[in-house]
Each structure stands twice: as C-alpha cells, then as structure tokens.
Design a protein that fits this description.
Helices cover about 55% and strands about 15% of the residues. The protein is built from eleven helices and seven strands. The protein has helices at about 5-15, 50-60, 75-85, 90-95, 160-165, 170, 175-210, 220-235, 240-245, 255-320, 335-355, and strands at about 35-40, 45, 65-70, 105, 110-120, 135-145, 145-150. The relative contact order is 0.08.
Length: about 350
C-alpha cells in the first residue's frame, strides 16, 4: 500500500495552491442574533450588547435579565450561546435541528419550551391552491436572569412582542417569565387568527360539495384535510406544556404569571375545538363527495346502459337478417324491408320513451 500523506501535509499543500478553496471558518454567534437587550426594572438599557456582555452586565448589577433573540442559528453559534448561558447540550441540539413537537422540559433552573408557529397562506381559491398553512418553530430557554428565543421559519417574528413588552415596563419588571408568557400568548393568538382564516375555505368546500350538478375533485378535500392535520400536529400537543406551566409542582414560573397562562390555555382550548370541528366537517365532506361521485357514476352507467339497449335492437334484427340463409321468413315478401325498418323504429322509440320516463336518459 502506498504511503498516504498526513492530513496536515495535505492541508499545507492545498494552502500553497493558488486555486485551493479557503478554509471554512465557523460563523460568529452574533450573525444569528436578531436582538440582544438588557432589561433592568422593566426598562431596556441603552446601547448594543453582545450576549456575553449582556449577561455579565446583568450579573454585575445583580438585577434585571437578558433577552437574546436568535434566528436559524447553526451548531457553532448555539454552542457559543450555550457556553455563555449554561444550556444543556440536549437543549442545544433540539434548538439547532428543530422539527420538535411542542414540549416543556426542565434542566436544573432552566425551562426549555418548544412552540410550533403557524401562518395562513393567502390564495385565490381553495380548489386550486396546494398550501393553506405553513409552520415554523420557536424554542425558548428561560433562566433566572435570561431568556433565549430561537426562531425557525420566516414568519411569527417576535419584534412586535418585544416592542409591546417594552411599552409596558410595569409588566416586564416581573422578569423572564413575563417574556415566556408573552411569546406563548402571541403564538396561540396566531393559532386563533389562522383558524379564523381557514374557516371560509372549509365553508367554500362545503358549498361546492352540496351544490347540485357541481363536480369537485376529492383530491382538494384531501389536500385541505392534510393541511388541517398539519395544523393539528402543530397546535394540539401544546396543551400539556401549558398545563405543566400552570400546575406543575416546583414550577419556577411565579404564581401571578401562572394566572396569565390560564388565559393562554383557554384560548388554546378554543383553537383545539375549532380544529376538531374542521376535521370532522372535512371527513363528512369527503364521505359526501365520494357518495356524490358514486351516484354520478351510477347515473352515467344507467344512461350508457339505456343507449346500449336501444342500439341492441337494430343490431340484433340486422344481424339475424344478415345471416344469408336462403329460407328465412319474409325474404321474398315485397314489403318485408319496410316492415323490419318500421319494427326497429317502433321498438327503439318505445325504449327511448320508457327510459326517458324513468329518468334513465
């Protein structure tokens, strides 16, 4: 076996080539930062902060908290944040790779809450669109003096939540739990908005299915039902984390903030009931559409069978008299042709009238 050069030798030789690709440098954690602020007595301190400086400032003062917002961080960026805030490696892994179900976990004095976000996709008609809802994720790390929010997806921006809280310092002074509630409330309110927007789509499909002589593709009902399934998977699992935040023993969330979470849980129940109603309605529409198609197919088959029966009369008679036998009744009769044609017309007309009367034609 020939001797292979070492990895260091290969790297050095590659660096000497003019066309060698530059080494990949790990990205800075600050490049994923949407906003980083220090809040003391409910008010934001002026000036920009890195996440290290922000946490150091809070711990130097002995009061306040840091709110760090990240968007699509990679492993290196999250590792830097984890070192600063002391986050568990399992939480960091979930925050990087996303695709998590809504859940609440506790690692020592840090709460880790996963929320699925949803947004409504505008479209002209429910019968032509392929997407109704889009989903994303928000991960929240909440400690005694910090909140780290990690967002995946291009919707449900948290800037308006931050702005609303900054305008209410008396509420923000209660600490990181206030931010946790505000974001959860914002996400659940978006669920309400999405289900309100989906309702007309379900109503449009219902009208199409039950409108006489209107054909609708079953695939469109399946498509909307698939979107409702995606919405249900994003929304329904959040019920248990909300109940844990309200009732879990040893919960680090202050008692006065838990009361606000009860309101969020009530709104979540309303959303869950709406989604269950959508799912039930679409199942009914699917059964009705299939029944409507079956009835239409039976009607088409009756119509085809009626025309086949009418066409069979001249075919049968012409077939009999076309067998070229020498001895057949009426072959030598002067009026035989006219009698046969008349009989064919009489029978076919009688069949047509009968089928039309029975609504087969």
């Amino acid at each position: 076996m020939p001797h292979m050069p070492s990895r260091a030798t290969r790297r050095a030789s590659a660096a000497g080539r003019p066309d060698a690709a530059p080494p990949i440098r790990p990205s800075s954690a600050e490049s994923a930062v949407v906003d980083c602020a220090v809040y003391v007595d409910g008010r934001r301190l002026p000036g920009p902060f890195t996440h290290e400086d922000a946490l150091a400032e809070v711990r130097r003062r002995g009061s306040g908290f840091v709110w760090l917002g990240l968007h699509h961080p990679d492993e290196h960026q999250m590792a830097s944040v984890a070192r600063t805030f002391g986050l568990h490696e399992l939480m960091v892994e979930d925050a990087v790779h996303a695709h998590q179900r809504p859940k609440l976990e506790r690692y020592d004095n840090v709460l880790f809450l996963v929320l699925r976000t949803v947004s409504y996709v505008e479209h002209e008609s429910v019968t032509t669109t392929k997407d109704i809802v889009e989903t994303g994720e928000i991960m929240l790390f909440t400690g005694p003096d910090f909140v780290v929010s990690v967002r995946h997806g291009d919707h449900s921006a948290l800037a308006e939540v931050r702005k609303r809280l900054e305008d209410d310092p008396e509420h923000l002074v209660r600490g990181p739990a206030t931010v946790l509630h505000a974001i959860a409330d914002h996400v659940v309110d978006s669920y309400l908005a999405v289900t309100t927007a989906v309702q007309p789509d379900v109503d449009d499909l219902e009208e199409l299915v039950f409108t006489p002589s209107t054909r609708i593709a079953v695939e469109q009902i399946y498509m909307l039902k698939r979107e409702i399934v995606e919405l249900r998977r994003a929304v329904l699992p959040l019920a248990e984390p909300l109940q844990q935040l309200i009732r879990s023993p040893g919960n680090p969330v202050p008692k006065d903030i838990r009361r606000y979470f009860r309101d969020v849980a009530d709104h979540h129940t309303t959303v869950s009931d709406r989604i269950a109603a959508f799912d039930e309605t679409l199942s009914t529409l699917l059964d009705a559409a299939i029944a409507k198609i079956t009835v239409q197919q039976n009607t088409d088959m009756r119509r085809i069978s009626a025309w086949v029966a009418i066409a069979a009369v001249p075919t049968m008679i012409a077939g009999i008299y076309g067998m070229n036998f020498e001895r057949m009744p009426e072959l030598q009769w002067e009026y035989g042709y006219y009698v046969v044609i008349g009989a064919i017309l009489a029978i076919t007309v009688a069949l047509f009238v009968t089928f039309r009367r029975n609504k087969w034609l």
